[in-house]
Amino acid sequence: MIVERVYMKSTKRALFDRNLRVRPVMSLKKALLRCVQDGNKAVIAEFKRASPSGFVNNANADLERYLQSLGGRGIAGVSILAEPHYFHGSYEDIAIAQKYPYPVLVKDFISSEGMIKSSFNAGGDCLLLIADFLGGQELLRLYNYARGIGMEVLIEFHDPECYQRIPESIDVLIGYNRRNLRTLKIEPDENAALKVMSSDTRLKILESGLKSSQDPGLEGFDGMLVGESMLTERFNGEV
Q1: Helix, strand or coil for residue 89?
Q2: Element (H, E) at 97
Q3: Element (H, E) at 155
Q4: Which of 4, 25, 122, 128 has its CA 20 to 30 A from that of 148?
Q5: What are the DSSP calls for 112-149, one per residue?
Q6: Residue 48 lies in a domain
């Protein structure tokens, strides 16, 4: 399966050992909360160059120009795909993104403390952990390391059963990814996701397949992560 191969390759990648951080950590959680308190759905705008699902970013391949275009649109944060082999990303992209006034979420297939330190050194503020591929103890270990160096954490799941792996006691953002990363198909079931999160008061983010800020699936979520439709300028709605 593709994601298992991505994780396997990621464990063998050379770590990003340069320190290119030029500013203190910015809080993605606080930025999201400001949007929610203003009565809006918070938006994280994603940048990626490609995806194993077949997406190729031809319309907005210039990262700096894309980030400049987000100005004045009420974006709470940006997500940068850093995985190089399947998504054609890089940690240099994170270093560029930190120069703009948005908290930076590092999207990678993180499974070690070294990869978290790489994310920090490149300028990331928050990092992604995927509950469908990491056990509860791994999530807790990586969370503790990230918080120890000042980074925030977003933990996402697709399979509702995998939500149970996320420790209740930790201060994270919770993401429900409509995309099944094993099949790479969009398989939305927000009702099932919201049901397992019914007593969870942490901020909830809906991910993948969003084409409108009025998507009915957003009901019950505090915000959204928008990638391909925003990169191809097909996202409908004010953000």
Answers
A1: coil
A2: helix 91-97
A3: strand 152-157
A4: 4
A5: SHHHHHHHHHHT-SEEEEETTTS-HHHHHHHHHHHHHT
A6: yes
Count of beta carbons in the 10 Å neighbourhood of residue 87: 20
pTM over 0.70, yes/no: yes
In a domain, 237, yes or no: no
Q: Are 152 and 27 in contact (CB under 8 A)?
A: yes
Token output for 202? 């942490």
Domain at 94, CATH number: 3.20.20.70
Any domain includes 236: no
- DSSP 8-state symbol, 25: P
- 131 domain residue, yes or no: yes
List active site positions: 46, 48, 107, 156, 177, 207-208
Q: How many domains does the chain have?
A: 1
Nearest one of 120, 156, 137 to 3, comparing CA atoms: 156
Residue range 128-184, pLDDT digits in tens: 999 999 999 999 999 999 999 999 999 999 999 999 999 999 999 999 999 999 898
pLDDT at 238: 54
| Alpha-carbon gap, residue 145 to 132, rounded angstroms | 20
Range of the domain at 124: 2-231
Q: Which amino acid is at 123?
A: G
